[in-house]
Amino acid sequence: MAKILLLLASLSGFTGVALGAFAAHALRSRLPENMLGVFQTGVQYQLWHTAALIGVALLLLRWPESLLFKTSGALFVVGILLFSGSLYLMTLGGLRLGIVTPIGGVCFLAAWVCFGLGVWRSL
């Protein structure tokens, strides 16, 4: 599972940087300032949670059977897809996905709770 999470983190990190550069160079003149800010929020959350995903994967190398760390990693991935992905779709495609963005945020919160509990039980 650690290897999969590290590979997903590399993909997420790559796309996060690419999307951030895309926003800075190609979208700056095409999107209203408030929508550019929404897009940049998606990039920021994606990159921060990519770093968290790397941390969880590294902990899984030490505690490979930890269900809490596995759950945390999965929730970080789902949170990135739902939260950041919905913000990208909203700004680029005009799609309003309603509850999807907050569900992604709840996934992030749950991932952090699982992460903390996993640390508490492992150390």
Automatic annotation (TrEMBL):
TM segment ranges: 47-63, 75-93, 99-120
GO cellular component: plasma membrane
Keyword annotations from UniProtKB, A to Z: Membrane, Transmembrane, Transmembrane helix
Keyword Cytoplasm tagged: no
Residues forming coiled coils: none
Compartment list: Membrane
Bilayer topology term: Multi-pass membrane protein
Main location: membrane
InterPro entries: DUF423 (IPR006696)
Pfam families documented for this protein: DUF423
Domain of life of the native organism: Bacteria
Family: Belongs to the UPF0382 family.
Protein name (database record): DUF423 domain-containing protein
